[in-house]
Specification:
Blueprint (H helix, E strand, L loop, with lengths): L12 E9 L7 E7 L7 E12 H8 L9 E2 L4 E9 L15 H10 L8 E5 L8 E5 L3 E3 L6 H5 L2 H14 L7 E4 L24 E5 L25 E3 L4 H9 L2 E6 L5 H7 L9 E3 L4 H15 L4 E6 L6 H6 L1 E9 L18 H12 L9 H4 L1 E5 L9 H13 L9 E3 L4 H5 L1
Parallel strand pairs: 9-12, 9-14, 12-13, 14-15, 15-16
Antiparallel strand pairs: 1-2, 1-4, 3-5, 3-7, 3-10, 5-6, 6-8, 10-11, 11-17
Helix pairs in contact: 4-5, 4-11
Length: 427
């Protein structure tokens, strides 16, 4: 991936951006920064309309990801907006973004000519999206489908890549296989608005932020390709992504999903009529033995004995029953641990005796896999964090192209919040 240093700019333009030093939501400060006005070769300048808030953003703000920058930085992994300028030739000069590799730079230079001012685009970056404008490498952008809104465009890329990478590259999903998707009504499970609270991976996985002109006394210039309003700004909306199930349906695999509460069952059924039945949606029991029986019951409904793949962002006490339900050759793909996630504005909430002791107990009693037993069990456990994968430019851009070629249903959008309310959204 590529990043833009905080405050770095060429020319006299400005932008509004949320800046912090990781550790607490309270550290976020809305600042006016200088903005690059002329993108270099391979770069595209975008006036942001919506910003995606993922669970990874929450971890970055709290400083719980090793990938989080040590000093002050602008958080944010994905966005949508309108192209303001393009560095489409070598004559456009020196670049500002720090490319992850020479391969990334060369691909960005090749793809820059595919964009022009006024294009509606969505993109992914390694931090920097919480801003009213952003400079991004061309290969990390995609045109928003014509029938999609800016909100939907900002809800797609990170969740889709996460789900698809886990299911295809690691899980090697095939038609007819049976796949368990944890938290299927939130995050990478669904594209649907859920409760707006920071309680679990299911209830805070995706927000889209829009900008409100009234929020700023002197807003930076923003191109609007639909209204020609030079001062139209994005507001901040909250929703989750229903993508793993959509991908499984598209490839012809069979799915069983879990949710944290009964109120979310109909969300899944309404989104996938004819594909997901109520017997395929499990409201996870707090008892691991009961949860194991729930898995058996859903498998029986599908006429299956075991899972081929488990896509797991919950882990914790649910890991072992899930792992035990994999068949020979089964793949347990882990990309999160919502059951182990602390609550609160900062990592210092762990100093609360009740919070700290509870998490300490979960940590000490966490499931363990003996690698010496895996050959006999004929199963595998794989983990990944997508943020470390962006240096593999060819692999991830191919996955993204394939995802857009699947013509998946657009994400559903829920509540909206103003850009200046970003700390509230994170909470």
């Amino acid at each position: 991936m590529a990043t833009v240093p905080v405050g770095h700019a060429v020319g006299g333009g400005t932008r509004k951006a949320w800046v912090l030093k990781a550790g607490s939501v309270k550290n976020l400060r809305l600042q006016t920064l200088r903005q690059v006005e002329r993108p270099g070769y391979g770069e595209v300048l975008i006036k942001v309309r919506c910003i995606g808030l993922n669970f990874a953003d929450v971890f970055s703000v709290l400083g719980l990801y090793s990938a989080t920058p040590r000093g002050e930085f602008v958080p944010g992994l994905e966005f949508s907006g309108v192209v303001a300028a393009v560095g489409a030739s070598a004559s456009d000069g020196k670049t500002t973004v720090e490319f992850a590799s020479q391969e990334a730079r060369e691909r960005a230079e090749r793809e820059a000519s595919g964009f022009k001012p006024g294009d509606r685009v969505s993109g992914v970056v390694r931090f920097g999206a919480y801003s009213t404008s952003i400079l991004a490498p061309a290969h990390q952008l995609r045109h928003i489908p014509k029938s999609w809104s800016f909100e939907q465009g900002a809800a797609f890329n990170v969740q889709a890549l996460t789900s698809f990478y886990g299911l295809k590259e690691l899980g090697n999903v095939k038609p007819g296989q049976v796949v368990l998707v944890h938290s299927c009504a939130g995050g990478c499970g669904l594209v649907r608005q859920m409760d707006f609270t920071f309680q679990s991976v299911e209830t805070l996985l995706f927000t889209s932020l829009h900008f409100n002109t009234k929020s700023f006394s002197s807003p930076p210039h923003c191109i609007d390709d639909t209204t020609n309003d030079a001062h139209h700004f994005p507001s901040l909306s909250f929703r989750n992504a229903q993508l793993a199930l959509a991908i499984l349906k598209a490839v012809g695999a069979r799915a069983i999903g879990t949710v944290g509460s009964s109120s979310k069952v109909n969300v899944v059924l309404d989104r996938f009529p004819g594909y997901m039945e109520k017997e395929q949606v499990i409201v996870r029991s707090s008892s691991t033995s009961e949860y194991h029986e729930q898995l058996k019951s859903s498998l029986k409904f599908l006429g299956a004995d075991s899972f081929d793949i488990a896509l797991d962002a919950v882990a914790g006490k649910y890991f072992q029953p899930t792992f035990d339900s994999l068949g020979p050759g089964g793949r347990h793909v882990v990309y999160g641990a919502a059951d182990m996630t602390p609550h609160g504005d900062s990592v210092w909430s762990l100093l609360n005796p009740m919070v700290g002791l509870k998490l300490a107990y979960k940590y000490l009693t966490r499931p363990k896999v003996d690698p010496l037993e895996l050959p006999a069990q004929n199963k595998s456990v794989m983990g990944f964090n997508l943020i470390w994968m962006f240096s593999k430019v060819g692999q991830l851009t191919a996955l993204l192209d394939e995802l857009y070629g699947m013509n998946l249903q657009a994400p559903l959008v829920g509540n909206t919040f103003a850009f200046e309310d970003l700390p509230k959204a994170l909470r």
